[in-house]
Records
---
Amino acid sequence: MRPLFKIALSILGVLAIAAYVVLNPPLDRPAGAFSRQNYRRGPHEVSYQSIRWADTSRSTAANREFKGVGVRELKGGIWFPADKQGAPFPLVVYSHGYMSQYKEGQYILQFLASHGYVAVSADFPLSNGSAPGGAVISDVVNQPGDISFLIDQMLARSQQADNPLHGSVDRDRIAVVGLSLGGLSTELAAFDAKRKDPRIRAAVSMAGPSQFFTPEFFAGNGIPFMYIGGTADAIVPYRENAQPIPKEDKNAVLVTLESGSHVGFIDMAPTVFRWLDNPDKLGCTGLMRGLKSAQESNGGKPLPTLGELIGGAGVDATASTPPCQATEFAHAMRPARQHTLVTLAIYSFLESQFSTSPTVRNDMHEYLVDHLPKENQDVSVRVGE
C-alpha cells in the first residue's frame, strides 16, 4: 500500500471518529426557552462531604460467605450549597439501583444543590456493587429503614452548631429519589404501610419496579409522586411498570421518555455508553449474571419475586415480569439527552412542591405538565386520573 494512500486512510479514519464524537456528545443542551432557562446551573457553589455512618439499631444479614454484622454501615456523600443564602434548604435522599453505588445519580444531586437543595446518598449495605458476599436484591425490604436513618442523620447535623450543615436542612421539605431497585426503595419509603416515613413530602421513582402495586398501595397517602420511565427500558419494562401509574395513583405524574433506556439514567452513561445503540444490552448481561449467582448460592432454587419479598397491603405478589426478556433491544436515545430530560423533570417537580414562592410553584408545575413536553418531542407527561 502506498504511503500517501495510508495517510489518506488514516485521515479519513480520524475524521470519521471526530464526526461520530460530534454527533454523539457527552452533554446535551435542551431546545425551547423554558427548558433552557430551567436547565441553567443554580446560583450556589456546591460543596461535597463524604460520609460513613453506622445505624447501630439494625443489623446487616449474613450473605453467602459474609457472616453478617450487628450494624448497617452506610458510606456515601452529601452535596450542599456552600453558602447559607436561602437556608434552610429542602433535603433530597437519593437511592441507587442494584449492583450500583451512591454516585450513580450525582449529576442530578449536583444540579439540585446548585439550586438550593441538600442531597445525600449512600451505598446500601447488601445491594451495592461492592457488597460483601455479592449484591442481593432481597435486602430491598431493609432499605426504607436506611433512608429513614439518613434523614435522621441529616436533621441531627442541621441542629449541630459546629457542623457545616448547621441550619441547612428543612425538616418540612424532604423528598426521596431513586433509580431501579432504589426507585422501589423510594416507593416503599414513601407509601408502604409498614415501611413509610411520614416525614417524606415528595417522591420520585426512575424506572422503579412497580407492576405489583395496586391502587390500595398508594391510597390515602397524598404524597406527590413522579415516575419517570423510558419506553426502551429492557430491565424494568415500561408497559408493565410505568404506564399504569397514573391510574394507580391520582397524585402521580408520569414522565415518559420516548426511547429512554434503563442504564441511560446512571451518571456515567453519557461518557461510557454513548456509543451503544441501547446500553441495556450490556446492563442485562451484568444483571442476569448477578441474579444467576444469587440463585446458585440459594441452592439453585428460584428466587422470590419482588412482590413476594415485599408482601402486605396493596401488593399483588403474583404480578411479576422477569427482567431482560426481550430478544431484540429497541434503539435508545443518547444518554446525554436522557440526563437532560431527567434533570429538567426532577428539578421542576421538586420546585413545584418545595419552592417558597407560590408563583414559582405554579410556574414549575405548568412547565412540567405543559412546556416540557411541548418543547421536547421525546417527552410526554400524564397526571393522575
---
Amino acid sequence: MKPDEILRVVDAIHRDKNIDKEIVFGAIESALVTALTKQYGENAEIAISIDRNNGRVSGTHDGVEIDTQELSGRIGAQTAKQVIIQKIREAERDAIHDEYEEQVGFMVSGVVSRHEGAMATVSLGGTEAILPRSEQIPGESYHPNERIRATIFEVRKQGSRVKIILSRIRPQLVQRLFEQEIPEIADGVIEIRAISREPGYRSKVAVISSDARVDCVGACVGVRGNRIKNIVEELGGERIDIVRWSDDLQVLVPNALQPAEVDEVILCQMLGRGIVLVREDQLSLAIGRRGQNVRLASKLCGWDIEIMTRDELDQQIEKAVEGFASIEGLEPDVAERLVGEGFLSYDDLSVIEPEDLMEMGGLSEEAVDAIVTEAERRATIAEEAAADQRRRQREQEQLEATAAAVAVEAPSEEAAAPEADDAEPESSEDSEESQPEEPSAGEVPDAE
C-alpha cells in the first residue's frame, strides 16, 4: 500500500468502526511484521513503523533498513492483507467490549430483532445483545420490533465477537428507572440507599432526601402517582413500595415493613437479627403473602427479621430458658443472658461464637465446645421432628380433601338414581314418607 492509501484506510476504519487510529496503525504494523517474518524466517529481527502524518512506511531487518518499495509493494498489498483484516476485527471487538463493559449495571434501550425459543436478541444500534430467559421478568413475552429497556448484566469476549447479556430482573433496572423518571434523584437531591426486589412481583426502594424541604417519598410517587406509575408499567405491573431510609434500625425496620403497623423492634446485635412485635391482626400483613413482605424488608435492612406477637415471644423465651438451662454446663443465669441477646432456639445457640459464650458464662473452651455440640444435636432432632410434623400435616390435608370430594359426589349419585330407575314412580304420599329430604346444592349431608 502507498502512503496515501494507508492514511485513507486508517481514516475510513476509524470513522466506520469507531476504532482509534492508533490501534489501526498498530494493526497494520503488526501485519507487516508478520508478513516479513514469513519471508525472512522466525529468527529474523524485524521492526516496522508508519509515520502517522504522511503514511510513509519504514523498517529494518536485523538492523538493516528494508527497501521501501518492497514494503509498499507486493508484501503490503498481498501477503499482509488477511493479517490486517484479522487485526482490524480484533481491534473492533476490543473497542465494542471496552465500550459496553463500562456500561455494566446501566440501562440501555434496544429493539427486539428476533425471539428464538426462550431467548430474545436485542439490537443496540451498532451491535446485538441477548436477553436470556433467566434474566427476563416472569410472565413477560417479547415480539420482533418491540422496544425494551434493560440493564447490561455481563460483557465478555467470545472468539472474534463480543457477547453482551442484558437483564430485566436485577435491582439496577429499578434504580435506573427511578433516576430517569424522577429528576430529584438524577440531580442528587434524593438518594436511593437500598433496593430489594423479587422480579415481577414486588420491590422495596429506600430513599432519603438531602434537602429537608423535599419529601423523598412524595417526590418519588409524583402528582397523583404519575411518576411511580410509569415505572410500574415498565416493569409489567410489579408492585413498588417506597420506604423512607433511616440509619436508625429502630426507625428503618418499621418503615420497611409497611403497610403493617409495628409495636416494637428488638435488635439482637450478636445474631444480626431483629425481632418485630406486632398485633395479632397485623401478623399476616407484616409477613406478607408467602413471606414476601418480611423477606424483602430483611434484604432492604440487611438484617434478619422475625415477626411474632407478644404472646409468641413470651412462649419462646420461656421454652428457650428452660431448654438452655437443661444443657449440662450451662447455668440458668447464663441461659437467661443468652435469651436476652436474642438466642431463642438450639439452632441459634449452635452458631454462637465460642469466644462470646466463654466471656458470657466464664466457661472454658472445652465446656463451650461441649455445649455447642449438644445444641447442634438438639437442633438436628428438632428439625427432623418439624419435618415429620409437616409431612403428617400434608398427609392429613390430602385425606381430608379426598374425603370431602367423596362426600360431595355421594349426594349427586343418590339424586340421579330415581331418574335411572325404570320402575313406576310411587305415589306422592309414599314418596314423601320413604325418601329423606335432599340437601341443597353443595351441601354435604350429616352422617347419622
---
Amino acid sequence: MKHLVHLSFCIASLSSLPTYALDLVQALELAQQNDMVLQAAQAEYLAAAETESQSTSALLPAISLSLFTQKNSTETSNATGSFSNGTSDYTTDGYTLSLTQTLYNQQLIDAMDASESFSAQALASYEAARQSLILRLARAYFSVLAAEDNVTFAEAEKKANTRLLKQNQERFKVGLIAITDVKEAQANYDSTVAQAIIANNDLSNQQEALWLIINQRPDSLNSLQDSIPLNFPELGDIKSWQDKAIANNLNLRAAHYALEAAKNNYDSQRAGHYPTLNLNAHHSSTSSDGSTLGFGGRDVDDTVIGLSLDIPIYSGGYTSSKIRQSAATLEQTKMLYEKQQRQTIQEMRVAYLGVQAAIAQVKAFKQVLISTESATEATQLGFEVGTRTSVDVLLAQGNLFKSQRDYAKARYDFILKLLEIKYAAGLLSSDDIQHISQWLSPS
C-alpha cells in the first residue's frame, strides 16, 4: 500500500509539472539539427567539394609500385644437336616503380578551374538552404500560431452563437420573436460548429508541418505579444535594397558560380585539341634463379626517364561534339543566370513593398477591430432592448470575428515580410530570429 501511495503521489507530481512553451529560437535550433532538407543540402555540398580535390589530383604526380613473383618451367628441344634437350625450372621476382607527372595539359587545368567554380556554387547553394530554413521555420511556427488563433476565434464564435440561440429560444417561448429568428440562430450555430471542427483540423495539419522541420511536437508555442514595433530600422529606399540583393543574394551567387563553371568547362572541351606533355619515369628490377639454358640466375635493373608529347589529330569527331555540347550548356547557363538576376530583383521589390503594405495593413485592421468591437457591443445592447434583431447581432458578431482573424494574420504577415526582405537580400541570419523572439512570450 505504501508503494501504491508513493506511486500515486509521483504520478500526481508529474502531472502537475508546468509545461514549457517552445520559443522561436529553440525551434530554429531544433530545425538546424533535424531538418532533412538542410542535411541533404549539406551532404550535396560535401560531395560537390570533393570534385575540386579530384580535378587537382589529375595534375599531381601519379606513382605506382608493382610487385611480382612467377614460377617458370621451360622445356627445350634442339633439332641441330648443338645443345641437348632439357627442362629448366626457375623463379623470377621483381618490382616496377613508375612515375607520371603532367607538365602541360590545358584540358586538365580548365577542368580544375571548373571544379573550383562548381564547389563554390555548391557552397552558395548550401548557405542559401540555411537561410531558406530560417524562413521555412518561421512560416511554419507562425502558421501554427495563426491556426491556434483561428481555433480560439472559432470557439468564441460558437460560444456566442450558442448564447444567442438560447436567447432566441427563450424569446420565442414568450412570443417576443418569430420562429424564423430561432431557425436563423440555429443555422448560424451549426455553421460555427463546423467552422470550429475545420479550425481544429487545420491546427493539427500546421503542427504536423512544424514537426516535419523540427522533429518534435512541443506542448505549446510562445505567442505574439499584443504590442509589437511596426517599423524596420534598416529599411532604406528600394534602390539600396535592390543593390544589396544583387551583391548578396545567395541563389544569385550560386547562379554566378554555375556560369563560371560552364565557361571553364567550355574552355576545357576546347583544350581537347591541344597537345599534352608528360614526364614519365620507370624503374624495374628483376631477379631470377635460373635460365632457359640451365645457366645461373641473373639480376636486371632498368631505369627509364623520358618526355612524351601527345598531339591529338582525329578522334572521330568526339572532341568537336563535346565542344558544341558545352557551348550549348554555356548558353543555357547564361540564360538561367539572367533569369535568376531578374527573379532576385523581382523578389526584393515584392518583399520591400510587402513590408510597407504589411505595416499599413496591421494599423488598418487594428482600427477595424476597434470599430467592430464597438459596433458589436452596441448591436447586442440594441437586441436586448428590442431595437435590433438577432440577424443584426449575427452580422455584427461575424464582422467582429473576421476582423480579429484579419488583425492576427496581418501581424504574422508583417513579421514574415521582414524575414523575406532579409532573405531576398541574402542577409537573413539567426540574429533576426533572436530579434523577433523578443516579441513573443509564453501563453
